[in-house]
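Consider the tokenized backbone below.
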């Protein structure tokens, strides 16, 4: 609720400054550049009413309103500079290039004036907004709810460093004990339990940041703890070792803060995530229209190949651990899992003849375009699994839960490499490719994976 208020506040400021910048630009254009008396014609009012929404779209693609309480002044200036530059170029080619001018030099003047006016007004409004926001966050009880894991001497040092920083924005809820001796921080913060209580503590206190105050050389324990926390919504910071410092991994957005590494929750820039979601919607809608003949043919083929429904619905775990019904063409005989959950294998007698062909070509996955339109899935992302198998995988490799930070996909790098996993070991092998995908997500990589998926469909190389 707090974020929605601040987002609405900033949106109002951005709309107002964008409208004002166009009005001021229009005045400068007529009076200073064209040497005319100011006249508010139709173009003036159209720009006042509609151009602010053009700028708003730019800001949304930048991710300006994403995690709005984490804005700071330098970031606001960078965002405003980039938006003003590229937005001015777009407006020049779409609105200003057709204008009648006395000299081509007037085009340069118009472009420069539009950039200067818009950048100045938008930055001024945003700096005021950010200053008010930071003062609000620094007030008692409004900071980011922060949990410290560990209670040794190093944890006390970090706590005191952050507490004494002039721009401290953390609201410490307490600490979690790592081992029996790790209890020195109890004289400063509430002791909220042990590592076994971690998930419950995160939920009960609505934790937004976690500081893991154990040495990063303790890789196994550190990896296990991070896997339990890393859901894409909580910021994680850890102690750096000398290698991390030399590699440049230490977060330096804060001059006075403690020396910590902030774990990047998502390597894909926000604008790419917005474009990715747009591609999901557009491509899925087009695909469903073009595939209508295929859906009709496949429906008859599945129906007459064996008794049972045409579509197969199954619970899968999606983004944030939320369950949804995945939609597929039925490829097995009914009651195929009457003995409990089972993975398909090569030559599986439960698979129908038409189902075998559909699995080879991945055609059984096509109805999942509906899942994409519903926001439950993406075109490219880690394949969703059932909770029954997730429990088995997590017991062996807790890092699997990182895959639930994003929407699952119709296809993935692991799916291209392995196809349908026949056992938990193959699931673990496929998971490695999906984890690498998570660390390298980009629009270009998604397009490459979709390209190889199309090849598999046409060559019927799936398994």
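A designed sequence for it:
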């Amino acid at each position: 609720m707090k974020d929605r208020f601040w987002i609405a506040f900033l949106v109002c400021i951005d709309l107002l400054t964008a409208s004002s910048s166009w009005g001021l630009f229009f005045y400068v254009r007529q009076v200073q550049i064209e040497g005319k008396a100011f006249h508010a014609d139709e173009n003036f009012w159209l720009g006042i009413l509609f151009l602010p929404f053009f700028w708003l779209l730019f800001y949304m693609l930048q991710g300006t309103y994403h995690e709005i309480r984490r804005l700071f002044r330098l970031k606001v200036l960078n965002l405003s500079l980039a938006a003003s530059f590229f937005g001015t170029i777009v407006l020049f080619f779409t609105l200003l290039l057709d204008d009648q001018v006395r000299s081509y030099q007037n085009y340069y003047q118009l472009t420069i004036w539009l950039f200067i006016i818009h950048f100045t007004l938008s930055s001024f409004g945003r700096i005021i907004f950010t200053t008010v926001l930071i003062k609000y966050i620094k007030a008692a009880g409004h900071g980011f709810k922060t949990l410290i894991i560990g209670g040794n001497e190093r944890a006390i040092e970090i706590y005191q460093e952050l507490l004494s920083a002039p721009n401290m924005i953390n609201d410490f809820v307490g600490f979690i004990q790592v081992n029996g001796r790790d209890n020195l921080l109890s004289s400063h913060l509430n002791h909220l339990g042990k590592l076994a209580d971690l998930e419950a503590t995160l939920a009960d206190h609505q934790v937004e940041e976690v500081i893991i105050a154990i040495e990063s050389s303790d890789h196994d324990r550190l990896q296990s703890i991070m896997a339990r926390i890393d859901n894409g919504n909580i910021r994680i910071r850890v102690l750096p070792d000398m290698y991390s410092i030399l590699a440049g991994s230490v977060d330096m957005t804060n001059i006075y803060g403690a020396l910590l590494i902030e774990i990047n929750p998502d390597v894909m820039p926000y604008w790419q995530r917005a474009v990715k979601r747009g591609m999901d919607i557009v491509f899925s809608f087009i695909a469903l229209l073009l595939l209508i003949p295929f859906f009709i043919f496949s429906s008859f083929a599945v129906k007459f190949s064996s008794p049972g429904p045409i579509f197969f619905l199954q619970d899968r775990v999606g983004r944030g651990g939320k369950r949804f019904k995945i939609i597929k063409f039925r490829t097995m005989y009914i009651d195929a899992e009457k003995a409990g959950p089972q993975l398909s294998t090569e030559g599986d007698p439960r698979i129908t003849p038409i189902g075998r062909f559909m699995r080879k070509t991945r055609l059984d996955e096509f109805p999942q375009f509906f899942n994409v339109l519903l926001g439950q899935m993406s075109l490219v992302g880690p394949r969703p699994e059932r909770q029954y198998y997730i429990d088995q995988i997590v017991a062996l490799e807790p890092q699997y839960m990182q895959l639930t930070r994003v929407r699952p996909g119709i296809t993935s790098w692991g799916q291209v490499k392995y196809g349908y996993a026949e056992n938990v070991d193959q699931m673990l092998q496929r998971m490695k490719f999906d984890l690498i995908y998570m660390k390298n997500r980009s629009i270009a990589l998604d397009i490459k994976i979709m390209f190889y998926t199309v090849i598999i469909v046409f060559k019927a190389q799936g398994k």
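The chain has a mean pLDDT of 84.
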